[in-house]
Amino acid sequence: MSELARYIDHTLLRPDATAADIERLCAEAREHRFHAVCVNGAWVASAYHALEDSGVKVVAVVGFPLGATEADVKRYETEAAVDAGAHEIDVVLNLGRFKGGEDAAVVRELRDVVEAADDRVVKVIIETGLLTGAEKRRACELVMKAEARFVKTSTGFNAGGATVEDVKLLREIVGPHYGVKAAGGIRDAATARALIAAGATRLGTSAGVAIVRGEAPGNGLNAPAY
User: Fold this and answer.
1) Which of 57, 74, 123, 181 is catalytic?
2) pLDDT > 90 fraction of the chain, expressed in percent and rounded
3) Which terminus of the chain, N or C, has fewer Cβ atoms within 10 Å?
């Protein structure tokens, strides 16, 4: 098994993904012993059953990809994902409220998700490509205040993805006791290793198979970058 596999959340978040695509994603995760698969809420139960007894976790995205849904909706999405078998939650920060200075509302919303996750790992996607350096620092501070467990760079659906510089910065801000998930545009083993060396403890990528095999990503199931 590649040493990189344990870092990878094998990801399929395309809107046109089918049940057969999710089945294949889970089969790849079993074969390569990835840390987790990461799927939209509609596929959590399918992934959970496909991976039962495999040791591979199921990650559900919440408020994805914009983060602009009502706070109560994010809480309900989290509860539904947990009921369906999710082991971890990746929630998108409400960037509009954040950029508008509504820090208390942002923390309250994230705490609701953390509470609904019921001790499961919550990762907060802050969309580093849309933030200034000062905003990245402030976003990390709010994530920690909300008692989430990870800060995550990107959805992969907006400007920018994971960079070594951003991962180094996030690691510096959150310190050694929080996770940093790099996601967005991770397509090869060299990039994956560089992000881990910079401080990433998890990688979100749709190119997991190519990465662990040391291949260039192809044009198959997970061709769109995430």
Assistant:
1) 181
2) 92
3) N
pLDDT in tens, 56-103: 999 999 999 999 999 999 999 999 999 999 999 999 999 999 999 999
Task: Return the CATH number at 80.
Answer: 3.20.20.70
Selected catalytic residue, list 9, 90, 112, 166:
90
Q: Could you tell me if 184 and 206 are in contact, meaning their C-beta atoms sit under 8 angstroms apart?
A: no
Q: Residue 220: inside a domain, yes or no? A: no
Query: Is 143 part of a structural domain of the chain?
Result: yes
* Annotation marks residue 181 as catalytic: yes
Q: What total number of domains does the chain contain?
A: 1
Q: Supply the range of the domain harboring residue 31.
A: 5-213
- What digits encode the pLDDT tens for the residues 144-157? 999 999 999 999 99
90 is catalytic: yes
Q: Residue 219 falls within a domain, yes or no?
A: no
| Residue 133 maps to a domain | yes
Region 31-45: mean pLDDT is 98
93 Cβ neighbours under 8 A, 6+ residues apart: 67, 106, 110, 124, 125, 126, 127, 139, 143
- If 0-12 CB within 10 Å is exposed, 13-18 middle and 19+ buried, where does residue 2 land? middle
Residue 57 is a catalytic residue? no
